[in-house]
Write a structure and sequence with these properties.
about 25% helix; 2 domains; alpha/beta; single chain; 3 helices; four-stranded mixed β-sheet; Signal recognition particle alu RNA binding heterodimer, srp9/1; about 140 residues; 2,3-Dihydroxybiphenyl 1,2-Dioxygenase, domain 1
């Protein structure tokens, strides 16, 4: 039996970074636990000081297929390359024919750069473009393929 898991991303601006990743992945804000009208009500119920209410954000896959993502405010900036990164399979992944996949990858790269991401490098495989290494608005690396 597998264990349900989520991924937490340390960052300076949780809500802004969550908005970027919601766009990138088609995710939505995670709803508050059952019995609470909103996150503020949940925070108050659990005694979370108001000054900490913006210290995090959470996203969920609306289809329930992917893991939840959490964004946690931390004081230190990102300083080195990630040791873990996301592969955003906007083109359908490598099982999708290149002629179909690559235009989708290019469209996703344009959409994500417009949302604040940067292109780090475009990689080739077999003499043609294969995937693009990018960084989100806070510098976390990810690939689009």
């Amino acid at each position: 039996m597998s264990t349900r898991w989520s991924l937490t991303i340390d960052c300076a601006h949780p809500k802004a970074l969550a908005a970027f990743w919601a766009l990138a992945l088609g995710y939505v804000e995670k709803p508050p636990p059952a019995g609470f009208a909103g996150w503020e009500e949940w925070y108050a119920h659990h005694g979370v000081p108001e000054e900490e209410w913006d210290d995090g954000a959470a996203l969920t896959d609306p289809d329930g297929a992917g893991p939840d993502l959490s964004f946690l405010k931390v004081p230190e900036p990102k300083t080195v390359k990630n040791r873990l990164h996301l592969d955003v399979q906007a083109g359908g992944g490598r099982a999708t024919p290149w002629e179909t996949r690559w235009p989708r990858v290019r469209e996703a790269v344009l959409r994500l750069t417009a949302a604040g991401a940067t292109v780090i490098r475009e990689y080739e495989l077999g003499g043609r473009p294969d995937h693009v290494l990018m960084a989100d608005p806070e510098g976390h690396e990810f690939c689009v393929l």
